[in-house]
Design brief:
single chain, mainly alpha, 7 helices
């Protein structure tokens, strides 16, 4: 019943929440960057440094709040993957698993905002869990979407490429720039997926 009501929405839940995910994270991240009192950049600093109260007592509030709100927005985003369900179990099962892992990654992102970098171990655990779960999500979701004839295959290829390039870069060079690449590369995937989902909805409405 609930699923039927969600399917009747004019704008897909995934598309609406995907737009909010991008706007919320980017807006709060760049506000906190603007308020950072010292030199800051992706080559020398991890994103979480923006949420460190020892380095940016005022701007840190914005970054941490952005992580919490983005994590909340990820809940309807991952739930919205129902739009891509098919009757084929080999496609539906990995997609549902991807949704479950995705919801766990949303909780991890919220915890990154709750436990800022200056709190040490709790933040490191939350951050490590988020990036690990995000890696798994991209694999499961993109494998499932590759098996869907309505999905733009290049988007799935891009999503998998982001995943394995991140792994390769982390093993080869590491450092803050890899984190920036992973986060903003994933946000671009969210945008492309949101667009494809909207177009699918329009096609189904005709």
């Amino acid at each position: 019943m609930i699923l039927m009501k969600l399917r009747s929405l004019r704008w897909p839940l995934l598309t609406i929440s995907g737009v909010f995910v991008i706007i919320l994270y980017c807006a709060f991240t760049f506000i906190s960057w603007a308020l950072y009192p010292d030199v800051y950049g992706p080559i020398t600093h991890y994103l979480s440094r923006l949420g460190n109260f020892n380095y940016s007592p005022f701007g840190a509030r914005f970054y941490n709040l952005g992580c919490i709100l983005t994590g909340i927005a990820l809940f309807p985003f991952y739930i919205g993957f129902y739009q891509w369900y098919t009757d084929r179990l080999y496609q539906k099962v990995p997609l549902i698993l991807g949704q479950i892992v995705g919801l766990c990654s949303a909780v991890a992102l919220i915890m990154i905002g709750v436990f800022s970098e200056d709190q040490g171990s709790p933040h490191m655990v939350a951050s490590s869990m988020f990036f690990l779960l995000n890696f798994i999500v991209l694999i499961l979701v993109n494998i499932a979407l590759l098996l869907n004839s309505d999905f733009w295959k290049l988007i799935a290829v891009y999503g998998l490429a982001i995943d394995f390039l991140t792994l390769g870069f982390q093993l080869a060079i590491g450092g803050p720039l890899v984190e920036w690449f992973t986060v903003f590369g994933s946000l671009l995937f969210v945008g492309l997926l949101s667009l494809n989902t909207r177009i699918l909805k329009l096609a189904q409405s005709e």
